[in-house]
Design brief:
heterodimer, A: 153 residues, alpha+beta, four-stranded mixed β-sheet, 4 helices, 9 strands, B: 85 residues, Ubiquitin-like (UB roll), five-stranded mixed β-sheet, 3 helices, 5 strands, globular
């Protein structure tokens, strides 16, 4: 299990290979990559800066991973989230989950992303034609996270 | 009671401050008392922490609710809803 907050880019293939190499019982790996888009709320975006709350970020994602472990049969999980200056097409976030079978890996991966979006202390400020603006939280992200509260496991 | 207050993102800019040490008045016991007290500073505090505005408070790096108790030397962070991922 791991959480990494970093400025540098990450290598998805390398991270997946490392995560599953140690365990021959892994039968499924699900991965999600979040990427910077060049448009938001109808406006052209030329870049963004991401800030976080060092300490709480690692801790909150660790708690989310523990919760995923309690809900599904997963073997390992890794979350990498970038901070600092990013441009459209850059990778922002990586979530990898390994398990024996695909169902647990798919579900836990989506759960981790939904919870991360509403619980982990990151904030995006994007660069648009008029200057810089803080990205507003979306109600749909909160709904996506709450959906898991209704699923009994 | 002395606490360390941290502000992030839009709040840090609006309040013109990233961090402050405060000696709280004796009537401030829980998070809700603190946000009420901060609101009474007026200006950007009154606007950002107004009733009905969305904001989050963490105590010792855990998400807190209005009833969460404060304690001596607590690390309290006030910030807008998160937008990572």
């Amino acid at each position: 299990m791991g959480v990494r907050i970093q400025n540098e880019d990450f290598d998805v293939g390398g991270e997946i290979a490392r995560l599953r190499a140690a365990n021959p019982k892994v039968g499924a790996v699900a991965a999600f990559v979040g990427v910077v888009r060049d448009i938001n709320e109808g406006d052209s975006v030329s870049g963004m800066s991401l800030e976080h709350y060092p300490g709480m970020t690692e801790r909150s994602i660790g708690t989310i991973i523990d919760e995923a472990k309690a809900r599904w049969r997963i073997m390992d999980a890794l979350v990498i989230h970038r901070v600092g200056e990013l441009r459209p097409t850059d990778q922002i976030v990586l979530v990898i989950v390994s398990s024996a079978h695909r169902g647990d890996a798919f579900a836990a991966c989506e759960f981790l992303m939904d919870y991360l979006k509403t619980r982990a202390p990151f904030w995006k400020k994007e660069r648009v034609a008029e200057g810089h603006r803080w990205v507003q939280a979306r109600a749909s992200d909160e709904e996506a996270a709450q959906r898991w509260d209704r699923i009994q496991r | 009671m002395k606490i360390r207050l941290l502000y992030f993102a839009r709040f840090r800019e609006a309040f013109g401050c990233a961090e402050e040490e405060i000696d709280l008045p004796t009537h401030v016991h829980v998070v809700g008392d603190l946000t009420h007290w901060l609101r009474n500073r007026g200006g950007a505090y009154a606007i950002e922490l107004a009733e009905g505005r969305a904001y989050r408070v963490a105590v010792d790096q855990e998400m807190a609710a209005a009833q969460t108790r404060l304690h001596e030397n607590a690390e309290v962070a006030v910030f807008p809803p998160v937008t990572g991922g």
